[in-house]
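Chapter summary example: a protein plus adenosine-5'-triphosphate.
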Amino acid sequence: MKSPTRDKLLEVKNLQVSFLGIKTVTALSGISFSIGERETLALVGETGCGKSVAAHAIMRLLPPESGVKGTVELRGRNLLGLSEKEMTEIRGKEIGIIFQNPSLALNPVYSIGHQLAEPLRLHRKEKKKKALSRAAEALKNMGFANTGEIINYYPSWCSGGMNQRFLIAASTILDPALLIADEPGKGLDRSCLSELEAGLKRLKEEKKTALLLISHDLGFVRNLADRVAVMYAGEIVEIADSSGIFEEPLHPYTKGLLNSLPEKGFIPIPGFSPPLSRLPSGCRFHPRCPLRKRCCIENQPEIIETNGRAVRCFLYP
Ligand SMILES: Nc1ncnc2c1ncn2[C@@H]1O[C@H](COP(=O)(O)OP(=O)(O)OP(=O)(O)O)[C@@H](O)[C@H]1O
Ligand code: NI
């Protein structure tokens, strides 16, 4: 929504995800958003609202018993209609993904250099020497100075923050157009977090990689995101430019999230998100909303777009 003519890289339309079990839970109730080429979109919202499910659905990494509907178009190609073989080609090459725990994703028995160079040797048939020099360059982009030494390190020798940056270097070594980062900063201390932030910034600016950034840390989001989508109980309730969300939030839930920031006085939103198996009537946020009206209890608001932003709330026409 930054500019109406921006080239769309990823377009998610009406994505619905249900987990079939004794009780079927609908984790995503039809979410739609798009990410432009080179753009960073953040997904924020309280725990359990469906952020990780959205990331997994886009990458087709959900368990087979999950029901997925809607479309996920990467440069116009619907990923949900591809064969598993075609999808394997997309993962890593066109869309990279990193999760919060890097030690689970890095292989403990191979050196960092080997793990970075391997995809280049495999997919690009690059010679060892060239692949290793590209690996060193990727490490430099992630803020490491002594790359000649670091390529010989093993993950267990390094801190969580270093490993998270190795993982970003590894997930983007084939220059994917989009990197999905699900809580990349979780569990990292402040200094590791600022190194991670600088690494992601360089990736955006130098490699022109688009980012889908999932994070609880609104400060981190504010520093990196061009646009922000706010989720609540399996729905998107507001999407706007980063400055719109942080300076002029519209939805009462977005306002509540911002008030819980330290600089706004740590005021938590009273109550809890509803369980997905027992959603309230009307607006899903109404039981916790200080501004609720009668219609909010009875009717479900649609998400409405105006002036380059979208909001799901009866306060806005
Ligand atoms: N495989 C699964 N089977 C059943 N339910 C699931 C499955 N995966 C996720 N869910 C449910 O879907 C909902 C959304 O989960 P999700 O992990 O996407 O939340 P989140 O927004 O990423 O939260 P957090 O901030 O804690 O990471 C949760 O209620 C979760 O229990
Ligand atoms: Ni999550």
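Key point: The domain at 8-94+176-311 is CATH 3.40.50.300 (Rossmann fold).
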